[in-house]
Structure formats: C-alpha cells, structure tokens
Amino acid sequence: MSKTIRIGAGAAWWGDRVEPAGVVAEHGELDYLCFETMAEATVSAAQVRARRDPTFEGYDTYLDDRMQAVLPACIRQGTKIITNQGWINPDAAAKRIVHWLREMGHTGIKVASVNGSLITDRVLSLTDTILENGKPTSTLQSTLISAEAYLGAEPIVEALKAGAQIVVTGRVADPSIFMAPMMYEFGWDPLDHVKLGQGMGLGHLLECGAQVTGGYFSDPGFKDVPEPWNFGFPIAEVSEDGSAVLTKVAGTGGAVTLQTVKEQMLYEVHDPANYLTPDVVVDFTQARIEQVGPDRVKISHIGGKPRTPTLKVSIGCTEGFIGEDMFFYAGPGALRRATLAKKILEERFKIVGLKAEEYRVDFLGLNAIHGAATPADAPEPYEIAVRVAARTATRTEAAKVGREVDGMAVSGIAHTGKRVPHADRTREVIGVWSALVPREQVPTSINYFES
Fold it and tell me: What is the pLDDT of residue 1?
C-alpha cells in the first residue's frame, strides 16, 4: 500500500479562531498541523510595532494561545507542527514554544527556527523594479520599513530531516508550509515540478483554513452549510502520488463539497494555469475533483511547471497617517441630514486647513462599499453612519478629522448621534510594494532549540 499522511490546518491568518485548531489537533489523527498566520501587511505592521514597543518580541501575538491549545494533543500523539508564527523573529518564537513545552513537562523536543526571509538591509541592492508601478525600488529608500522574501519549503524539509518536531518560520509562502511535510515524507525532489505542483496545489487548498470547509462560502438561502458557527478546519489525506482527499473532523460545522473546494482552488489565483510560488508554478486547469463521500473530496492531476529563478519580495513602506471617525443619523430624513453634515465637514476642513492627500465621507448603509457605482435610485436607508477618513503626511493633520467630527456633537445639525471619542483616532499607514530578487541571493539558516 502507498504511504498516506494526514495534514491539518491550524490557522488561516493572524486573527483566526484558536478553538478549531485545538479540535483538529485532538481529533484529527494528524501527522502534521500547519499554521498560517501572516498576510502581506503582517510583517510591516510588526516592524512598526517593534519600532514603538521595545518589549515586542516580533512573533505572532497569539502564539501563546495557539500553542497552549494544541501542544498537549500534538506531543501526546506525535503530531509535528509547522508554523510561520515567527513573523520577524523566528528565533524568539521558537524559544517561546520551548518555554511552553517545559511548562507542560515535555523534554527533549527539538524546535527549529527558519531564518533568512528578512532582507530589509539589502533589498534595494538586490532588486530593480517595483512590480506595481514600474518605478525603481530605489525610490522607496526614504520610506522603507521592511522587506521579506517569500521562502519556499526546502528549509522546512531540512529542519524535519534534522529531527525537528516543531518548525517555526518567518515569511514563507503560505502553501509551502503545507507542502513541506509531503516533500519530507515522500522524498520528493525539490525540482520535481510534477509532484510539487500537486503538493503546492493542495497547500493552497489548505492555507485558508475554514474557507475550504464552508467559511467565507456560506450565503443564506443560496449556499447553505451546516453550523457555520462551528466550522471545522480542513484535513488532507495525502498519498505519495500527490493526490489527496480533503475532509474535516466529524461532528464539526461546515462542509467539504465540490463547491467549497472549487471556490478555494481559484481564490487569489490570477492565472489558474500559472500560479506562481517559490517552489513551483502550479497549473490547476487539469485538476480532477471528485466527491467520494460525505465531507470527502478527492483532488488529483494538479499540474506543475518548473519554478522561477526569482522570489517575490514584499516591501513595507510608510505612507503617512489616516484620521478616521464616524457619527450617525436615524429615522425619516436621515440621508438629508447626512448630506448636509458632509457639506459642513467639507467646509470645516477648508477653514482648519486640512492638508490631506485624499479624504472621503461615506454613508454606511448607502454607498460606503460601492462608492460612485452606487445606483442613483438606491432606496434611502432608515439609518446612516457617516464615516469620515483622510490620509495625511503627519499625525497632527490626521488628528484634525476627529476634532472636526467632535464638533458635530453640538455644532452640527439636529439628531446627530456621536460616539464617545477614542483616545487616538489616527493610525500610521503601511503600504506594501512588490519586487523580484534572484533566489540565490536569499540564503536561509536554521537554528535549533530543545525543551
């Protein structure tokens, strides 16, 4: 019989729920549990916090919660953990996990940290062009905060070969985290694009957690799923040939169907024939998807093409500040009053000399989502929240938004509903740009720690 491994998802982003990870760790009969907790802006936000808060360790702020939820079951059952919760400091995250292992009485557990994705200090010398606008990356020098290359699965495989039971990384491509155990367990060659195409495609299906089990899928009366308050995280039963069956823990909410799998397969994939990753170019166009049982979908024949000579780099840069606040109107005439309030604020911003690169006043409940595309004959809502926001070069200018909204409480118009003011209604804006770097210019290193 061919070898089969069970890989479970423990998180799809930083703010994902912790409880389902504990459920899949305890009842999923897993060989591997993988956590994906980063988004494009996560690293930049972490760098900003590190600049302000010297006590910030640089790893996932929910690392403690997640490890406490899953470590007991994983250690007891021999489930290995792979996670990118290291963010900008994988070593610190690994040491923190060792702390929890010791607190729980588990000794002799090897924890590895994968480093090398942070290339902030040399990104401008390694890259040429900003992908989004074609300008030289050198133009970002004055605003640069961080730069992280998307690493692939190979350093994780190396750590597993060295006996690590838990591997913590920084910026690794989301599906690579899930493919690494396939490469390790099945001995796949890093240049075997046929096998890696299958594995990376499966990693893409798993990386967004509950999205493939009905999360972000349910649409009442159109696409209903059971117990959407109790989504189970997905599990892949992977065979050596790269085919797999997607499922979830019995008794959890959600569903694994042809529809949920197809939606996730195409999620964030601009070209289904050429899904670029650090390890391989994935081709979904020939994939076969079969419902083989309740909450069991088989995936096979995902294609692969040779990997690119470059790695993608996310470059975080400061882009000023946003000032934001809101107030409310309800009942007959709500839209009429909101429209006058907008005019008042526009005039007030002229009086106080607001220097904004852009600002907008939205009517939540009418046009905040579709903006100018909102139909002119859209029905008037019974209640409206007026959201005011401006992007400025300085925090002082951004603060003018909240000050003027405060004035609407007694110097506005009839029936203005005002929230209690926040202590700070401004926030720094971090923009994320992309570039390409030769993969040989991004070496990796692995450190090992033991409980």
Answer: 57
